[in-house]
Design brief:
Elements: H1 2-11, E1 13-15, E2 19-21, H2 23-27, H3 32-45, E3 53-57, H4 60-72, E4 76-79, E5 91-97, E6 104-110, E7 119-127, H5 131-142, E8 146-156, H6 161-167, E9 172-180, E10 187-188
Helix pairs in contact: 3-4
The structure holds guanosine-5'-monophosphate (5GP).
């Protein structure tokens, strides 16, 4: 997605060998015009799929998923990372290791909001080693719901999450795929599909 790639090149900062900071438009301040374009791009990549719900994970996934949901016209459910006393007792849980914080946490979704009749599209901001996605997929499996596919804003294809999950037959659509962040330089994979 050209608009997204331009924005990354103009505004990102590379941290260490493998972290991309995009706080000015994705992870702190949010560029809603760009989010709309991202939502439309996900819609076109999952056109005609019978999606009944979007599942994401707090915090950064929520804004992206909500804007995308306006194109799919379905509800958004987000997995909670934080302990909360008012979360339902009946929950699906899974363990996730945070890539950026390097610590383990439990994600939870109330059993009220996922069921075996749901066809789920997962949406998230980044795909690195695939831990967050694996946790969400585990929760979908526990709910006996059907995973239709995954929409990712930025995939770092030099990390192995995307490859492993695609090998399991999961449709993962990433709008920008980064081949390398070496020497502080962002290099994208060649794109098969063009959006503006
Ligand atoms: P994974 O679970 O695939 O290893 O990592 C994905 C999660 O870690 C995403 O939900 C995102 O929050 C965070 N993440 C991974 N890599 C990056 C990165 O390069 N930049 C930012 N901002 N977040 C990242």
């Amino acid at each position: 997605m050209e608009l997204l790639k331009r924005k990354i090149l103009q505004e990102c900062r590379v941290e260490g060998q493998d972290i991309l900071k995009v706080d000015s438009f994705l992870n702190h301040q949010m560029d809603i015009e760009l989010f709309n374009a991202i939502g439309r791009a996900f819609k076109s990549r999952f056109e005609n799929k019978p999606i009944s719900k979007i599942l994401t994970i707090e915090a950064s996934g929520i804004g992206i998923a909500c804007i995308a949901a306006q194109y799919f016209k379905v509800p958004v459910v987000f997995a909670k990372k934080t302990e909360s006393r008012n979360l339902d007792k009946e929950v699906y849980e899974s363990k996730v290791i945070s890539f950026t914080k390097n610590k383990e946490y439990i994600i939870k979704v109330s059993k009220k909001y996922l069921s075996s009749s749901d066809n789920i599209l997962i949406i998230d901001d980044f795909l690195a080693k695939g831990q967050a996605l694996s946790g969400l997929i585990d929760i979908i499996t526990q709910a006996n719901a059907n995973l239709i596919g995954v929409g990712i804003v930025i995939e770092k294809s030099f990390q192995k999450g995307g490859k492993d999950l695609r090998n399991q037959g999961i449709q993962i659509e990433s709008l920008a795929m980064i081949k390398s962040l070496e020497n502080n330089k962002v290099t994208f994979e060649e794109e098969g599909r063009k959006e503006k």
